[in-house]
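Let's study today's protein:

:::
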Amino acid sequence: MTRRATYRLQLRPGFGYAEVAAAAPYLRRLGVSHAYTSPYLQAGPGSSHGYDVVDHTRINAELGTEDEHRAMRAAFAREGLAQVVDVVPNHMRIDPPVNRWWWDVLENGQASRYASYFDVDWDPPERKLRNQVLLPVLGDHYGRVLEAGEIHLRRDGGRFVVRYGAREFPLSPATLDGILAAAGQPDLALEAASLPPSDADDDASVRERHERKERLAGEIERRAADPAVAARIDREVARIEADPDELDWLLARQNYRLAFWRVAGQELDYRRFFDIAELAGLRPEREHVFRDTHRLVLEWTRSGEVDGVRVDHPDGLRDPEAYFERLASEAPGAWIIAEKILQPGEELPRDWPVAGTTGYDWLNVACGLFVDPRAEGTFTELYRDLTGDTRGFEEVARESKHDVMRTLLAADLERLVVFFVRICEGRRRYRDHTRNDLREVLRETVACFPVYRSYVRAERGVARDTDRDATGRAVAAARTRRPDLDGELFELLRDILLLRITGPNETGLVMRFQQLTAPVTAKGVEDTAFYRYTRFAALNEVGGDPGRFGTSLAELHEHNARAAARRPETLLATSTHDTKRSEDVRLRMAALSWMADEWAAAERRWWERALRHRSSDAPEPASEHLFWQTLVGAHPLGRDRAVAYMEKAIREAKTRTSWIRPVPEHEDAVRAFVEGVILDADLMRDVGSFAERLVRPGRIASLALVLLKCTSPGVPDVYQGTELWDLSLVDPDNRRPVDLAAREAMLGEAGTLDAAGALARMDDGMPKLWLYHRALAVRERRPAAFGAGYEPLCATGPGGGEIVAYVRGGDVVAVAPLRGTCPEASLALPRGRWRDALTGAERDGGHASVRDLLAGFPVALLERVP
């Protein structure tokens, strides 16, 4: 079917299959072709997003029954909707016992049937963790928790578990010998002690261990049916639990080590999703892992129930290209979208068998059009005056990357160091370099990497020109910044990363290096630097570069032309569940650049008037600067949402407080400041008065952005609820429930309105909904026009640079203003007769006044009249 538009739906308990089915008629009438659902394989209990899958073999029961899931699919079919489903190949949530695979790994170590599924380093740099998985789950240091009697031992039938709070962990069957012997079961004790060891990973030993430990558990349960036997076993369990030394000795023999949660960043021996210890990395590059994690999704694509697959975080995979090749082969004809963050100027590897990205690249190019580059000097001066920070964004980002590598991702860096040390020890020219030298060379190179990651395929000997360019730039920059380190080490690292020097350890370093630069960039830039460098927060968006003050018309036209030629079915997004703010907030903030001097004066005034609400050191200047921009961008912003946002912002900045080391005194002071400002009636009247001036230009810009999204090469994506004005901030604020029934009612009214009638209801968001409905109808009527072909139109005359216009397929023309006004400019329309799909006005091709084109509605969407 024609992939016309998607509508992103965030499933959660309370909004599951039945509710999505009920929304299907609305989605069809709105004009989208695809319901685009968040992940809904079985996730951890209470998951509000679905990215924490615990079982790939079934759908999430918290979202409804199998019957309700079938009814949802039937509703899509009745309404002519296809489905795009979000899949999570990179990681799983590992809370035992709900994750049966992980439970098996903890119980049996490398001898688990599922040990090969997870990216665990069984021989990590920390020798104390050899053949053990570090589990950073304790609320305090292990010894304190143990001695406080907070770790418990329990028998469950024929199996034994460790309990800490609500968490459970299995005891290795091979460590039950002491318990069973003391309970008068010497034969069972001998059987336990003679199980194949947990570090045996050959198939025969794995099978034997599994079969024998299952028989052992069954026999224990059978004998424990005798109350006397059960009592002896349980007394021994209670005795060990009551003795910290005995319990410690038993725990030390397990395939895991319980630890204080704060040690995760420094010593963790399994790959995570970023810094989330509860999400362990998977190995889908292994055929059996891919098969078992994708079986259900592939059944849906092969049956035609699912048309598209959105792949979450492919940059975390060892070889993303190999993954996409396998997925495309197993799901031929599927619409595959990569959730890939491209830096400005970066392109998706051309030979990846995917339709495109989820749209952050287009988002930043398009939204940057609404920023006035002439205001950069004013914003830079204001930022430096208020914060005292003269650094550029690049420097802040590099320092932020270093910070996360010293804390959150230190263990991941250390795994690279091990490979580098082994390589250098085998080469006499480099063997005298210290471990610290090698660590610093790696750390600086990762910090200087200009994109999220490269895609060198060491096993296949493939390094593209783009890989060589990014790696060369990173090494050169790192070498310049660290003249204290031996330059030959940087050259060695470059040659390894570009496959000029090869070997087993070299391959390990190359592949792990690429899996590290992506999370370092995500955590260091998106989740740290964006909250430290707050010069102009409208630019601080996923995949964006806050150091570049806006984009040009030429950049948009170049991006669109490239998409039309290479990836015409890429997604186009303006808000997602991961964006730092909705498009409506972002565009209101962008409008500040159109009144830069007035904004600077207003913010300076508010800083002075808010002095009585500020403590001596809270909030920090950069955080306060972000607060005032957010306050006007999301106006009116209630106290609770403002407090929650600023708490997240200061923890993400990681300068005075953080998620892993919260500082209550600082957070309380920031909370008091935010509440003081919000409750200061006089100050808020001034803030509100200024914010109201942004509302209309922000809304006009939003309508222009909707038009661009619905007509640019690609497939427009509507994030749930944003078809009306939406002033959501970063998650979880943007995952609040959406009233789809109210939107459906408004859509019914929209069908009766003309352009003037829609504009008369500006305050309730009707113009945005109405424009989506009309623009998507044009896409439905003229699919050929949007399938290929893109021709920029250049407006001439005064204000011509403030108009974006182009032709699609020779039959559709889009015209939108970038500054919320209609300048005295003109366009040369292609020959023929044209009708505006929004106002019904007709005109001939040739010279056309922009003011006339936009007389009836803020944007124009012209169709060729036959």
About this structure: The chain has a mean pLDDT of 96. Residues 4 and 780 are 7 Å apart (CA to CA).
